[in-house]
Design a protein that fits this description.
heterotrimer, A mainly alpha, B alpha/beta, C mainly alpha, A: mainly alpha, two-stranded antiparallel sheet, two-stranded antiparallel ribbon, 14 helices, 4 strands, about 75% helix, globular, B: alpha/beta, Rossmann fold, 2 domains, 6-stranded mixed sheet, 4-stranded antiparallel sheet, 10 strands, about 25% strand
Chain lengths: ~325, ~240, ~300
């Protein structure tokens, strides 16, 4: 199959470029790229649910924060080893997404968006309420000593870039494989026509629940990675804004494409990075981009590419 | 020995806000035969097959499939048992290729054997005459081709019972003839429950006919028996002979 | 203060919150009822109303009442016109698709909020109330000497707060008259019932949508003008009204006017009372979870037209 070979080539090519960038770019930009790859993990998690399954959640910050706090609190307060705490962060996000999924999937459409928004808001407020342990808005820092894995210092430039790259690559390749598997293809079918999928004998509700858990776990892994590599955990990451961000990235990059999330984060990150040197009101750019996207390019950058030149894009 | 029934219903009833769409329908579907369900518009045919397939929840009554009561099963479980369903209003996956549309239908049975799925999809698409179009997008196809795709999605599941809800509605005359040939080629292979308005199709393909009127069974019999039934003529045939 | 007087004070505060909330939520509800879209930027129209009120009040000389009165007229008109522009410019072009409208209005939210930050700045600014007499309130109790009336320390409200409650009631009544008694209201209701048929009968549905979207935003702005003498204008103040309006509209049944008013009082009063006795954060957690659960287990609360 040429399509799957092309797709394999594309994914490996993206990874090669990302690896090479570390040796080409100046330190300021490698730092940015590390952050972009971590946020792209979050965006890919979001894309799995929104782009492939067709469920628009406005509450993914809850899963990101579950991974972040699940890792951050166990590593600082219980003193768990980093890999164990990291796994715990992912598990926490998976469990939270399972519970939210069981409840929210009783609704659909606009109600689904509002329900996820409300649950995420309740989660954010809960973090504030238990400020004694979570340090609320102020957040807490994870010390350098607790950010070392197998002797590798993840606060160093190379350690951070390497870890971000490896974790990004794992998610990128796994998700690309997953969306081309029978499971992923059935999720796409649900996005296209849920009633029809059900009448082909698929348990659509169960599949959507599985999609939420995968999406939540990957998003949580993004949160845990962020805390691990940048050493900060705070309630800001649980606010509505952090639920809107992945939607923005994915819409911009191209929903339902494997490379879309990375493209979206990259584009948006530098847009905000450049504009924030001129003004504090950098979210203005995000607003304008959202409006323009929804009006003129609902398919996003990679989506337009797929429509025009690369129909094989997974 | 009497014919074996693969599916039957007992007292199946559906009430919408006090209005009865189906009242105590007792129905039998003979194995390996083509049974047509006919009746004037609003007779409750679609509601009835909706309840059989599980798409519509019955107010009361039971559905038995291969001797087991499946009344409580959700739609997808019934489909998994071997009941395939095609929609009255074409319902395909518009953004996907014909191949992927049919593969989604076939895949459940093959559990991960993509090569077998591929082979199955090709066989089925060829059979309905869409083999050449496998890689085209479903949403771009003509209405007639989308109807054929629906039928292909049904066949791909290798169903024990295949429910077709008005498969020839909106097809051109030549396409209807092709459909009749397709049905005839299936004789004995699969049990078919056909809802159909086009009497030519019914008379040429059906082994058995059940007439529904105002949500109740009006008559049962072979095509010739039904054709001569005075009550049926009064309720139905007399008014639609001019059609098509 | 003892429990009884304390509860009375909390109820009064709750009634003020509820009045503002009823106006704001009503705007969201009308927009959903007629146009079937969710306006996520609603809170920013509220914020804009407050900021414009400050701007107008600070530019009008003389007695504080002049500035306030001018703001009460100018702010809703300006905000309404701006919302109508958003409708024409964006919502109309994406054909009111529910999902894309949510994404688009999230964009509008950030545009309004961040533009305000750039022009108005990050500081909170007060507007002086037109009148603000402190009114001590009496309390009655059976004491040793039988029934007695006394004036507990701290049990008081202001004439302005009472005015807010009355003003909100008058505006809601006027709105109700507009919708049920006038031709404009008839056109709105016809569009709400079936926009295609209304179009066929010559109702300019596109223009009705713009008017309704403007009216919804204008109501939020009125609520905001009423609130600025109590709570200062700030560029991030739109967040809570949006969330609370969502809660009210969902519990009251989207598009149902009486349901919205009842729910606004339920939520406003309980928010006022709970926040006095418990942590406001805990109150908000319960309120948001309650809404989520209503949507999950009683979805007709959202789509239906029934009061709770």
């Amino acid at each position: 199959m040429t399509a799957s070979r092309k797709s394999m080539g594309l994914h490996l090519g993206v990874l090669v470029v990302l690896a090479a960038l570390f040796f080409i770019l100046p330190p300021y930009h490698t730092g940015n790229m590390a952050r972009i790859m971590v946020l792209a993990i979050y965006a890919m998690g979001y894309n799995f649910l929104f782009g492939y399954t067709g469920l628009l959640s406005l509450g993914h910050a809850l899963f990101f924060a579950a991974g972040m706090y699940g890792f951050g609190m166990t590593v600082t307060q219980l003193g768990l080893p980093v890999p164990v705490a990291f796994a715990f962060g992912i598990l926490a996000a998976a469990v939270v997404s399972l519970v939210i999924g069981l409840l929210a999937l009783r609704t659909s459409g606009v109600a689904f968006m509002i329900v996820t928004l409300m649950f995420a808001q309740a989660g954010y407020l809960t973090i504030l309420y238990f400020g004694e342990y979570t340090r609320g808005d102020e957040g807490f820092v994870i010390k350098q000593a607790q950010r070392t894995v197998a002797g590798i210092d993840l606060t160093s430039e190379a350690g951070r870039y390497g870890a971000a790259f490896i974790l990004f690559a794992i998610c990128f390749l796994l998700l690309a494989r997953l969306v081309q598997s029978p499971f992923g293809r059935t999720l796409i079918a649900i996005r296209e026509n849920e009633e029809r999928t059900r009448m082909l004998g698929y348990d659509a509700t169960r599949l959507k629940l599985q999609a939420i858990v995968v999406s939540g776990a990957v998003s949580g892994m993004g949160g845990a990675t962020y805390a691990l590599l940048f050493g900060y955990v705070g309630a800001t990451f649980a606010t509505v804004q952090y639920s809107i961000f992945p939607l923005l990235w994915v819409l911009l990059g191209g929903a339902g494409t494997t490379v879309g999330p990375l493209i979206g984060v990259l584009f948006m990150f530098y847009l905000i990075d450049i504009s924030s040197s001129y003004t504090d009101a950098y979210m203005l750019i995000a607003g304008v981009v959202l409006v323009l996207l929804t009006m003129f390019a609902p398919q996003g950058l990679a989506g337009e590419l797929r429509k025009r030149v690369m129909p094989w894009l997974p | 020995m009497a014919t074996v029934n693969i599916l039957h219903t007992s007292g199946l009833t559906k009430t919408y806000a006090g209005i009865k769409a189906n009242t105590d329908v007792d129905f039998e579907l003979a194995q390996g035969k083509i049974t047509a369900l006919i009746g004037p518009n609003g007779a409750g045919k679609s509601t009835f097959v909706g309840m059989v397939s599980g798409r519509i929840e019955a107010t009361r009554g039971q559905v038995f499939f291969e001797g087991k009561d499946i009344s409580k099963l959700p739609a997808h479980k019934r489909i998994q048992l071997g009941i395939a369903y095609t929609f009255q209003i074409t319902s395909v996956f518009p953004g996907l290729t014909l191949h992927e549309n049919v593969a989604l239908a076939a895949r459940r049975a093959f559990r991960g054997d993509e090569a077998a799925v591929d082979a199955k999809v090709r066989t089925v698409l060829t059979r309905v005459g869409l083999g050449e179009r496998a890689n085209q997008i479903a949403g771009d196809q003509s209405y007639g081709h989308q109807r054929l795709l629906e039928i292909a999605m049904g066949f791909a599941q290798d169903p024990k019972v295949f429910i077709l809800d008005e498969p020839t509605q909106g097809l051109a005359e030549s396409e209807v003839q092709d459909f009749i040939q397709l049905m005839k080629s299936l004789a004995g292979e699969v049990t078919i429950l056909l809802i159909e308005h086009n009497m030519t199709v019914v008379m040429e393909t059906a082994d058995h006919i059940t007439v529904l009127d105002q949500g109740m069974v009006l008559a049962n019999g072979t095509p010739s028996e039904i054709h001569e039934n005075a009550a049926v003529q009064a309720a139905y045939l007399g008014t639609t002979d001019a059609e098509d | 203060m003892e429990f009884g007087p304390h509860l009375m004070l909390a109820s009064l505060e709750g009634a003020v919150i509820a009045s503002i909330l009823a106006l704001t939520a009503m705007g969201l509800s009308i927009v959903f009822g007629v146009m079937r879209v969710v306006n996520v930027a609603h809170g920013e129209f509220f914020m804009l109303g407050a900021v414009i009120a400050w701007w107008v009040a600070s530019h009008v000389g003389g007695h504080a009442a002049f500035g306030f009165l001018a703001a009460l007229i100018i702010a809703p008109l300006f905000v309404g016109a701006m919302a109508a522009g958003v409708d024409r410019l964006i919502l109309k072009r994406i054909e009111y698709d529910p999902d894309r409208t949510i994404v688009g209005t999230i964009g509008v939210l950030y545009i309004i909020q961040q533009t305000t930050l750039m022009t108005f700045g990050p500081d909170a600014r007060p507007v002086e109330a037109p009148f603000n007499t402190r009114l001590a309130l009496p309390w009655f109790e059976w004491g040793e000497n039988g029934f007695a009336m006394f004036w507990p320390w701290g049990l008081s409200t202001t004439s302005y707060k009472l005015f807010v409650i009355v003003a909100a009631a008058v505006i809601l009544l006027a709105l109700w008259m507009l919708i049920t008694r006038t031709k404009l209201g008839l056109i709105m209701r016809a569009t709400q019932q079936d926009s295609e048929t209304a179009q066929a009968f010559g109702v300019p549905v596109g223009r009705v949508y713009s008017w309704v979207f403007g009216l919804g935003a204008g109501l939020a702005a009125i609520g905001a003008v009423l609130v600025v003498p109590i709570q200062q204008a700030h560029y991030l103040m739109g967040h809570d009204p949006l969330l609370l309006s969502f809660i009210v509209v969902i519990i009251g049944g989207l598009g149902s006017l009486p349901g919205t008013v009842i729910a606004a009082f339920l939520i406003g009063m309980s928010d006022g009372i709970i926040s006095v006795f418990f942590s406001p954060t805990l109150a908000k957690i319960f309120a948001t979870l309650l809404v989520a659960m209503v949507l999950v287990f009683r979805p007709q609360g959202l789509m239906g037209r029934r009061a709770p």
